[in-house]
Inverse folding.
């Protein structure tokens, strides 16, 4: 067994030291009636050669976004990843340590996380970032809980244009604890219906959460948010797409108090939905209410700069039942991936990739419009947009024959949008891909 | 200064990768978006070349202790070796470039892996059904507790409290609060185990669950577990198992057979996926039949060799994470289980327990063993006798760094004064264990003879003892450009 190095001689020596004859005696204190008296029913063990063959076979049952031209997004985006990211992440010194509880032996991880926090503050234009949570959905749920801690209220208001799965996660986190969730509808333009706020008693809500670009790719009316803060209700911008922040105004510029996002686009593979990266940023004044780990700068006994996990007094291992959250293991390596990704693109590259995403998306939207399609929502958009088309499921099915994964049928999430297809474009698409796809859609126009 | 920060490197105009070509260069952003939606100031990201990036992060990585470079006997964390083949296979194109919203017929391989991994975990734990969605152990705890809450509500019962021993992981009470329960902490008995009489006093019709780890955080097997389960069930409550310590039990005893109703697994511990410096992990939750309707959606089902995602589950707690969980972590655990098989997993547990017994047995003369019971896969010692020399456990931990060992977990569990919690795992050689034991014994001697050597430790790490108080009092949580920087 390559992963268990003891020889029978090693085992004998240890047993001799322990004064026992058989290793079974190590378990003699486990009552017989709860011992397993048989082998586990698992497939027979495989050698490395065999498992490799087997997994290549299983992988071949999948068709990926490399086998097709894919227009799928909806919170998970296919982007180019510079070779530096994988090269560095494959180092054992990065993937095989634990949480940096002993800072003197973990300056690598800690320094990278400090850089990560800095970069997230820059992207979101916020004052403080934690060192990651699980994903965009749980980041939003944690943000809502944090808002309720701060305001001591017990309800949150969510835009229904937030990713449907995120809203489900927020509900699961909120409702069992006795907190309320209400939703704002979206209007004809695909933007959150802020007029509905007038009929709400805002002093009941700890948070108003929006996503921009929202689930439809629509950029919300961010100017309206600046004037939204009434009765101390907190505004949360869930920026599902950090990559948009190379060109679009960041949450900090329109007054967000807590800004979160899904960081999967920043150097992580699609991996069938995970692991990705939950980005969590806030204002300095709410620091002690933030969930998750935070890295801080300090000095060592010789005055050298160094980094440590800090403000642990918020966390479960000290505060236990009174902790700000239960999160312990976070998504550290994903945060490191994002750090290396952003460092690799750099200031100019990040902006450029963001711009290309915007431009190519608009290019396709125009190509499609030229062919007589109607955009579902006449609003500014980034990365994705929805069109009206008869029978989107059939379009997707036909698309596979032509080499396309045509997008996401919105009817899956919104009963009222059964004739809508969400189409996502990134820098991975060539202009030729986009034109060909527009022609394909034209052929599908009448269902 | 150990290393500069990436922001302190580079020069204006440099770039660290070959940026994609802009085929639509002629279009200006203002043609596409209203000006007030556009960003005014660019984020201050680094401007560094590729070689600077590679050198910077390579150098930083070398400042870490990790399983690949150092023995890492961190109790309760199960820092075993991470097989390279798992990494290699997780990076196959067929897995890493798979989009979660692809039509089901395109993702049969991924669904097969998740379905089968779920079956294996149920068999290893002794359960009937499972969700793979949770991202980590604590996320699994929350998921399990939400299901327990939904189960009681469905039966028309309102149960408000969860009983937890005082030796529990801190995440346990935190997860209870998050799930809307009141955590009731009960004192452990003199033997470090759950005190049956104390438990009885707290068990009543308002108890939703009893939440425990077995072996517990002292590394001791709760021998009265069957009785605990019976008592718990007798008031209609459920028994939740924190699976952090499952590495002691694979193929030997199954939590489901002990009477647990719910158990979370830590794939990054027991099933050898990398800890990543603190994640991503994966914390699947397995349940007994009666809790199956409450699993998060979607559940993967198999029909005639085809797999599909079942969202039609009216009693489900909903979702606790977008998409399906940390798939590539699951994949690594799947590879590990397939390579180990039944015998291999059992051997892993046997050797993990053997190694812990060996280390604890050899150290218990020099360090106190507060609960002298046979340890399972980890053991807890105390450094309190060194206090008279002015030496605390943290000093012992820091001195170990000089010897090239990552320290054990310290100051946990909270019920042991000056706790030192050692978990060697099965993947270490006897030579490594002996070297660690020698270092610990040498440090015990140094503590008496030359305590300042410990108090000033570490001496050989890239930085010396760091001022954690200063970091907390005056939080500097991001790099701020100072005058004179480029």
């Amino acid at each position: 067994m390559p992963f268990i190095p003891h020889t029978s001689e090693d085992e004998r020596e240890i047993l001799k030291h322990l004064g026992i004859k058989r290793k079974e005696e190590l378990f003699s204190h486990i009552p017989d009636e709860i011992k397993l008296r048989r082998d586990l029913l698992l497939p027979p063990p495989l050698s490395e050669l065999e498992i490799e063959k087997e997994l290549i076979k299983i992988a071949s049952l999948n068709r990926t976004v490399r086998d097709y031209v894919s227009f799928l997004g909806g919170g998970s985006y296919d982007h180019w990843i510079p070779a530096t990211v994988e090269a560095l992440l494959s180092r054992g010194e990065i993937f095989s340590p634990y949480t940096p509880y002993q800072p003197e032996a973990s300056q690598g991880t800690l320094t990278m996380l400090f850089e990560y926090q800095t970069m997230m503050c820059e992207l979101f234009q916020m004052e403080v970032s934690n060192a990651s949570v699980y994903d965009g959905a749980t980041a939003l749920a944690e943000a809502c809980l944090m808002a309720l801690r701060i305001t001591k209220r017990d309800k949150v208001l969510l835009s229904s244009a937030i990713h449907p799965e995120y809203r489900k996660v927020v509900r699961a986190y909120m409702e069992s604890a006795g907190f309320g969730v209400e939703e704002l509808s979206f209007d004809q333009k695909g933007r959150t219906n802020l007029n509905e706020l007038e009929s709400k008693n805002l002093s009941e809500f700890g948070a108003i959460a929006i996503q921009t670009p929202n689930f439809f790719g629509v950029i919300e009316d961010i100017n309206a948010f600046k004037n939204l803060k009434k009765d101390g209700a907190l505004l949360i911008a869930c920026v599902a797409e950090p990559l948009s922040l190379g060109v679009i105004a960041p949450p900090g510029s329109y007054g967000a108090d807590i800004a979160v996002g899904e960081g999967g686009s920043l150097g992580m593979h699609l991996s069938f939905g995970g692991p990705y990266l939950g980005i969590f940023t806030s204002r300095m004044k709410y620091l002690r209410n933030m969930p998750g780990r935070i890295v801080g700068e300090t000095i060592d006994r010789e005055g050298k700069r160094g980094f440590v996990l800090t403000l642990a007094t918020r966390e479960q291992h000290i505060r236990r039942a009174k902790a700000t959250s239960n999160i312990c293991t976070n998504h550290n390596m994903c945060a490191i991936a994002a750090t290396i990704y952003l460092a690799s693109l750099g200031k100019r590259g990040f902006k450029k990739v963001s711009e290309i995403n915007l431009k190519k998306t608009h290019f396709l939207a125009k190509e499609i419009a030229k062919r007589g399609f109607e955009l579902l929502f006449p609003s500014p958009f980034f990365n994705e947009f929805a069109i009206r088309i008869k029978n989107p499921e059939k379009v997707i099915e036909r698309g596979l024959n032509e080499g396309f994964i045509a997008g996401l049928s919105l009817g899956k999430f919104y009963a009222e949008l059964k004739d809508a297809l969400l189409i996502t474009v990134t820098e991975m698409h060539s202009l030729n891909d986009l034109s060909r796809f527009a022609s394909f859609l034209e052929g599908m126009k009448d269902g | 200064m150990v290393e500069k920060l990436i922001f302190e490197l580079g020069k204006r105009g440099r770039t660290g990768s070959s940026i994609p070509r802009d085929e639509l260069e002629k279009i200006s952003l203002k043609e596409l978006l209203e000006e007030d939606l556009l960003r005014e100031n660019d984020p201050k990201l680094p401007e560094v070349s590729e070689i600077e990036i590679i050198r910077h992060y390579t150098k930083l990585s070398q400042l870490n202790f990790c399983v690949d470079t150092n023995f890492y006997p961190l109790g309760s964390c199960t820092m075993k070796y991470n097989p390279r083949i798992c990494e290699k296979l997780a990076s196959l194109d067929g897995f890493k470039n798979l989009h979660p919203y692809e039509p089901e017929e395109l993702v049969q391989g991924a669904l097969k892996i998740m379905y089968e991994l779920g079956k294996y975990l149920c068999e290893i734990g002794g359960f009937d059904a499972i969700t793979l969605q949770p991202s980590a152990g604590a996320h699994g705890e929350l998921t399990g507790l939400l299901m327990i809450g939904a189960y009681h509500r469905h039966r028309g019962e309102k149960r408000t409290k969860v009983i937890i021993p005082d030796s529990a992981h801190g995440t346990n009470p935190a997860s209870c609060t998050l799930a809307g329960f009141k955590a009731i902490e009960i004192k452990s008995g003199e033997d470090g185990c759950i005190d049956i009489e104390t438990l009885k006093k707290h068990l009543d019709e308002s108890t939703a669950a009893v939440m425990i780890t077995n072996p517990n955080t002292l590394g001791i097997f709760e021998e009265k577990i069957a009785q605990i389960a019976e008592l718990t069930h007798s008031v209609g409550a459920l028994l939740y198992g924190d699976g952090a310590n499952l590495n002691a039990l694979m193929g030997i005893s199954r939590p489901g057979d002990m009477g647990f109703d719910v158990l979370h697994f830590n794939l990054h511990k027991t099933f050898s996926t990398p800890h990543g410096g603190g994640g991503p992990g994966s914390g699947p939750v397995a349940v007994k039949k009666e809790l199956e309707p409450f699993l998060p959606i979607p559940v993967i089902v198999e029909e005639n060799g085809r797999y599909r995602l079942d969202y039609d589950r009216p009693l489900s707690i909903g979702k606790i994470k977008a998409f399906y969980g940390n798939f590539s972590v699951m994949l690594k655990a799947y590879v590990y289980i397939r390579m180990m098989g039944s015998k291999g997993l059992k051997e892993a547990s046997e050797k993990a327990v053997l190694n812990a017994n060996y280390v604890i047995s050899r150290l218990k003369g020099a360090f106190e063993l507060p609960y002298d019971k046979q340890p399972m896969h980890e053991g807890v010692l105390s450094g309190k006798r060194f206090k008279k020399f002015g030496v605390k456990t943290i000093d012992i931990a820091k001195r170990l760094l000089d010897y090239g060992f990552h320290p054990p977990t310290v100051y946990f569990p909270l019920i042991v004064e000056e706790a030192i919690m050692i978990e060697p795992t099965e993947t270490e050689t006897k030579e490594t264990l002996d070297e660690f034991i020698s270092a610990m014994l040498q440090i015990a001697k140094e503590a008496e003879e030359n305590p300042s050597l410990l108090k000033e430790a570490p001496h050989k790490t890239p930085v010396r003892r760091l001022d954690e108080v200063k970091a907390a009092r005056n939080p500097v949580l991001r790099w701020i450009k100072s005058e004179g920087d480029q």
